[in-house]
Amino acid sequence: MRFEQTFMNFILQHQERHNRTYHFLILMDAIISAAKRIQHYYLTGALKGNLGLVGSVNVQGEEVMRMDQIAQEITIHYLGSCGRVIHAVSEETKEIIPINTEGGRYFVYFDSLDGSSNVSHGLPVGFLFGIAKRNLDGPEDGHLRAGKDYRAAGMFVIPTGTFTLALLDSGTWRFHIDEIMNFVKPIQVMLPEDTRSWELSFNEANRRAFAERVQAWIAEKERKYAFRYLGALAGDFHRILSNGGLFMYPAIVNHPNPEKSRPKGKLRLMYEAAVVAFICREAGGDAVDEAGTPILEIQPEEPHQRTALYVGSKPLVDDIAQILRG
Ligand code: F6P
């Protein structure tokens, strides 16, 4: 019989190779348990009526669907019971969520159901998370960390069943869910250098509201690359990681309806942009904001801070960054 290596075995070997404790393994077990349970609810959601609108709005002013609340509850449960988490920042909760403030070891920043416009169709959504570690050797240095201080970042594509995890200085790895709900078969992901598979991914409906220099850049590049957009960051970024190219959610500076302008960008820094930027860097790529500043360098000032995002193959990120820096 042939057995694929499981995610847990992969992490165990990683920790032992680097002479590390098992705390991270315990945290990852909690995150994996949450993702599997969310996957199950998502797959059976339509039958159970979990995919409808609740009618309330979340802290970002978006409609909350029942699945969002379920995913949040599940994730907080597992992060709490593993005992390793100090605080969490979640897309669904305005304030920072204290968990094990004395004994915890990690900060977790997450959105356990990202891409909610896909929920009512049962189409792919994401569970994105970043992990930073308490300063064990000196005074506590705050719980809102820049992406460059993350130890790991990952994303599940639900219900597709893929899991991508980046470990600091140890690469980006992809796993697939098997028939007994184990994530198995680690494959290291590197962005392809061959430009023939590269794609551009952005919401075309916003294009005329992007800054003029961004519109001009797109016009110059668009004939060279295929264009794909699913509307859920984890799914769109998953394609870019495999095929190369650029995912972007630029600032919306010039929308005819001023309420739809987003001069600071739409995506959230801590649990969307920094997560994919970290994964991308470990896969050989890069990410910048609307000023051309590396996403991983941005120090968050508040948990739900928004940013513009350009993430993907390094040559394209370098190219747009030069334009953005003016
Ligand atoms: O921030 C949530 C999110 O759904 C992302 O997953 C996705 O990339 C983006 O918003 C899609 O936004 P829009 O519908 O404006 O293109």
What does this protein look like?
- With 326 residues, the chain is of the alpha+beta class.
- It contains 7 helices and 17 strands.
- The strands form 4 sheets. It has an 8-stranded mixed beta sheet, sandwiched between helices. A 5-stranded mixed beta sheet has the order 12-11-13-17-15, sandwiched between helices. Strands 1-2 form a two-stranded antiparallel ribbon.
- Helix 2 packs antiparallel against helix 3.
- The longest helix is centred in the first third of the chain and has 26 residues.
- The mean pLDDT is 93.
- The structure holds 6-O-phosphono-beta-D-fructofuranose (F6P).
- The site of 6-O-phosphono-beta-D-fructofuranose has 10 residues, from helix 5.
The gross shape turns out to be globular
The number of helices is 7
SSE run:
HHEEHEEEEEEEEEHEHEEHEEEH
- Average pLDDT rating: 93
Gyration radius, in Å: 19 Å
Helix-strand layout with pairing:
Layout: H1 7-17, H2 23-48, E1 53-57, E2 63-65, H3 66-81, E3 85-90, E4 97-98, E5 106-114, E6 125-133, E7 150-158, E8 162-167, E9 171-177, E10 183-188, E11 199-201, H4 212-221, E12 226-227, H5 233-243, E13 245-249, E14 267-268, H6 269-282, E15 286-288, E16 306-307, E17 309-312, H7 314-324
Parallel strand pairs: 3-5, 11-12, 11-13
Antiparallel strand pairs: 1-2, 3-4, 5-6, 6-7, 7-8, 8-9, 9-10, 13-17, 14-16, 15-17
Helix pairs in contact: 1-2, 2-3
Entry summary:
Helices cover 30% and strands 25% of the residues. The chain is α+β, with helices and mostly antiparallel strands and 326 residues long.
